């Protein structure tokens, strides 16, 4: 499996809220009836290896999915799944400043 790391130096907006995608990977696949949001990001691996900045458009970074019950209805047994490719949302190490 090939994994590409991306980084973004600007904030994007989701539902009118600014969202910062520090670095991470794209979504490889997601359920067809889910919602996938894309953004333009820099290919961090290419930049490290080649020393050139390359921007990739339509990179899938956020997936939203509403599960259904067996009779295809939303009920207390259903739920929501959100998948976000930004690895820095898992910790706060990117917020620490060296001193």
Provide keyphrases for this structure.
99 residues, mainly beta, two-stranded antiparallel sheet, 1 helix, 7% helix, elongated
Please render the helix and strand layout as text.
Layout (H helix, E strand, L loop, with lengths): L4 E3 L3 E4 L2 E4 L2 E3 L9 E9 H7 L4 E12 L13 E5 L15
Antiparallel strand pairs: 1-4, 1-5, 2-3, 5-6, 6-7
Q: Could you explain how this protein is built, in words?
A:
By secondary structure, the protein is mainly β. It has one domain. The chain contains 1 helix and 7 strands; from the N terminus they run βββββαββ. It has one helix spanning 44-50; strands spanning 5-7, 11-14, 17-20, 23-25, 35-43, 55-66, 80-84. It has a 5-stranded antiparallel β-sheet with strand order 4-1-5-6-7. A two-stranded antiparallel sheet has the order 2-3. β2 and β3 (17-20) form a beta hairpin. The model has no long low-confidence stretch (mean pLDDT 75).
Count of runs of 4 or more consecutive helical residues = 1
Q: Taking all residues together, what is the mean pLDDT? A: 75
Strand order of the largest sheet: 4-1-5-6-7
Quaternary status: single chain
Helix-residue proportion: under 10%
How are helices and strands ordered from N to C? EEEEEHEE
As a whole number of angstroms, the C-alpha radius of gyration is 16 Å
> N-to-C terminal Cα separation, in Å?
38 Å
Q: How would you describe the shape?
A: elongated
> What's the number of domains?
1
Largest sheet: 5 strands, antiparallel
Low-pLDDT ranges: none
Strand content: 35-45%
Q: Structural class from helices and strands?
A: mainly beta
The total of beta strands comes to 7
